[in-house]
Amino acid sequence: MAPFPPAPLVAALRACRPHLLAAAAFSALINILFLAPTLYMMQVYDRVVPTEGQLTLLYLTLIVAFALAVLAILDAVRSRLLVLASLRLDRLMAGGLLQRLMSAAIPGASQQGMRDFDLVRQTLSGPAALALFDVPWTPIYVLAAFMIHPALGAMTIVGAGLLVGLAALNERATRSRTRQALGAQAKAYASQEAAAANGEVVRALGMRGALRERQLADRRQGLDLSARAQLVGGGYAALTKFVRVFLQSAALGLGAWLAVERQISAGAIIAASVLMSRAFQPIEQLV
Questions:
Q1: 2 burial via Cβ count (<10 Å: 0-12, 13-18, 19+)
Q2: What is the pLDDT of residues 65-83, one digit of tens each?
Q3: What is the pTM of this model?
Q4: DSSP string, 32-79
Q5: How far apart are CA 79 and CA 259, in angstroms?
């Protein structure tokens, strides 16, 4: 059995390490700067509103605007780094992969193999990769929630655990279905490409109708398996969204109760909800 991941892919990813490490460093700065709106809201509710400090509000607004501008620049640079990494991966692997696929005695292997490779390459620069870079920094928001109040921090940890559990269940439930669907679709594409390449022979033998029905049957099988995987995954995604939105609302309720008990300030109510939302966002994207 061939090793997974394949050795050429591991070697190519190692060559992309400088881009990935730089993206990880930018992710750390981005997630720290994401705390700026939370701190801004707390200062506005706790300092500006009670004292009617308009000059303080101006300075706070300028500071948060600068922080968010830097965040946007860093986010753009991080996305650019991941795109460059995906392009480098293509330069390192596409030639050798295409040569091996073209030498394989399997109809349509070259086209399907390159489709799969492009899917992997595009994933490296897509939202899933960004979420993977953001997930390790979720403890920052958990720590900030604990600094506001231990109960809010505990709720954030429980909520993150629920979302991670749903992600694991989603992956387990859809893994085999997705693999079967991809295999069936690859078989259907290979059959179509083989029939197109031998079109004259097919017409001469009068096999067009039979091949068409066979290809439609293969296509229906692939679509049916794909639809089942999407239905299961869609259910888990909807459940995950419900849990996230409910926990965000529950954070508001818990914050309000703590404020009534004079354990936190009024500004911390909104800040707790924002922190929880930001902590859960990359986990929900991975689901």
A1: exposed
A2: 999 999 999 999 999 998 8
A3: 0.70
A4: HHTTHHHHHHHHIIIIIHHHT-HHHHHHHHHHHHHHHHHHHHHHHHHH
A5: 40
